[in-house]
Amino acid sequence: MTSLQKDILELREKKALVQMGGGEAAIEKQEAMGKLTARNRILALLDENSFQEYDLFVEHAARGFGMEKKVLPGDGVITGTGTIFGAPVCIYAQDFTVAGGSLGLMHARKITKIMDHALKMKVPIIGINDSGGARIQEGVGALAGYGEIFYRNTIASGVIPQISVILGPCAGGAVYSPALTDFVFVVENISKMFITGPNVIKTVLGEEISMEDLGGARVHAEITGNAHFYAKSEQECFEQIKKLVTFIPWNNKQRARAFPPKEPIFEKTVNDIIPSDPKQPYDVRDIIKSIVDDSDFFEIQELWAANIVIGFGRIHGETIGFVANQPMVMAGVLDCDSSDKAARFIRYCDSFNIPIITLEDMPGYLPGVDQEHAGVIRHGAKVLYAYSEATVPKITIILRKAYGGGYIAMNSRHLGADFVFAWPSAEIAVMGPEGAANIIFRKEIMEAEDQDAMRQEKVKEYIEKFANPYVAASKGYIDAVIEPRETRAILMHALILAKSKEESRPEKKHGIPPF
Amino acid sequence: MDKKTTERPLVDFAVTARKYKTTLTQKFMNRPIWTKPVAGEVRSTLPGTVVSLAVKEGDSVKEGDLLLVHEAMKMQNRILSPVSGTVTEIPVKEGEHLVKGALIMVIKED
User: Fold this and answer.
1) What is the CATH number that goes with domain A3-29+36-247?
2) Quick one: average pLDDT of A163-180?
3) ipTM of predicted assembly, 2 dp
4) Residue A370 and residue B46: Cβ atoms within 8 Å?
5) Number of A–B residue contacts, CB under 8 Å
C-alpha cells in the first residue's frame, strides 16, 4: 500500500466517523420522531451525487461547563453546495442528533460562511432548521452567531433567493432567520416555530396551549402567514422546494429558466368559469389554470389570507407571478393580511425579474372595527407601494368588479401598469351600484312615493350606465376590452413586448415602505 | 408619554423568569384569551345574511358538502363542511343576520 492510499483510507475513516453525527442512538431517536437525519435531508433534496460538503471537520468553540471534553461532530450543522435539477444552490442543515442542533459560535460560522459563499457565487441558499436554539453554555457567542446570520439574510435579500425549511423546532431568536428569508416551508407535526414556548406562556400569563396549537405547521401556514408552503411529509416538502427552484432565477441579475411552451390543459375554458350572476362566487385559480402553460399553477401561501391568491405559473415557457382576488373567499376583499401577502410577493417578483399579472375581481376593502384598528390603512398602503415601485412588466386584467380604492390598488394604470385589459363583464366604478345609487339619487329616492321601487330603478340605471368597462375605456384607463378566450394570446403578445421594457426610478438609498 | 399612561399604576409584569415593574397597555389587558377552536363548529367569517340552509339537524354530511349560502360583501358565499359527521345544531334561520364570528352550525365528527 502506498502512503497516498493509506492517507485516503484515513480520510475515509475520519469522514465516516464525523458523518455519523450524534451517533446511532441519537439517529434512532430522530427517526422515531418521523424525521430524516440532516444528512439524509440534504441528499433527498439535491440531485444525486451533487452534494459537496464544506467544513466537515470544524470543531466547536465552547469552553467551560465541561464543554472542552465534548466532541460535537461538525458542530451540529452540515453545510455545502449541490444542484437541484441542475441549478446550483448552497445549503445547510442543522443536525438535531448533535447536541440538539444547538447553535454555538462555530456552528453559526459554518452557516455564515456558506451564506457568504452563496452571495458571492450569486446562487440560492437553502437553510434546513432543526435546532433546540442557542447553546446556553456558549452564552453571548451563540447570540453573536444568530446576529451574524440575520445580517447576512438581510444583505442577501433581493440579491439571491433564500429558502428556509423548518424540520423540527425553531424557537426564540432562531425564528428570525427564516422570517427574513423569501420562502418558508413547514411540515405537519414536525415544524414548531415560536418566540416563547408553551411553558413560558403558561408560567407568565397562565394561558395553556400545546406546542402544535401555538406554533405548529398548520398555525404558520394558516393563521400567522409565516410559512409559504405546507406539506404533510418531509418528502412532499422536498418536492415543493424543487418545484419552486424551477420557477425562480439564480439571482437578481438573471431571469428564471425558460421551459418549452405548453398549451393549458384545464377542463374548463376561460368563458365557462365566471357565473352570470355577479353575486355568485367562483374559484379564480380556475381562471389562472385556463391561462398558464400545462395549467400548472404553483400557489404560495394557499391557506393564509386566502381572499387573495398568489403564485407562479408559466406563459409561453416563462415564469410569471400571479396576484388574483379570490371571490370564493371573503368575496375577494382586501384586508390587512391579504394586503401584506400580495405586497411582499409583488416585491419578490420585482426583485427577481418576474413579470406580474394581476387578475382583478374585488368589491373593496373589508369594513369593520377590527380591520380599522388592526391598521388596514397602513397594511393596505403596502399594496399601493409595492405595485407603484415595481419596474418589472405589470399587466392587469379586470375580470369583474373593480370598485373604489380596490380598483386603484390592484395594479391600475394610475400606479404604473404597463397593460390594462378588461373583460366585457368588468364593472369599473367608484363603488358598488347599490351604494352609489343611494348617494347620487338620494333626493329622487327620498321624494318618491314608493322609495323601494325608485331605488331599484336608480340602481338599474346606475348599473346600465356605469357598471361596465366602457367608461374607463373612454378615458384611456384601460387599453382594450377583450374577450376572455383571447386572454392567453394577448398576454403572450404583451409579455413579448415587455421583454425589452426599460423603466427607471429616481436614485435613492431605499424607499420607506409602510412596514 | 401621555398623561394617561404615566398615571397608570406600576404592576409586576413577568417576562420569562423575572418580574419587572411597569404599566400595561389597555390593548394588552383587554386581549382575548385563546381558546382551542372546535373542529365541528362552523362560524361566520364576515357579517352577513343566511340566504338558504342546505342541511337540517340530524343530517349526515361529508367534508366539503354545502351547508348553507351566506351573503356577505354582496357575494353569495357557499359555506362548506369542514369535517365529516352529523349536524347536531343549527342555531340560525334563513334570512337571519349574522355578526362576524357567530356560531352557524355544529357538526359532530364521525
Assistant:
1) 3.90.226.10
2) 96
3) 0.79
4) no
5) 50
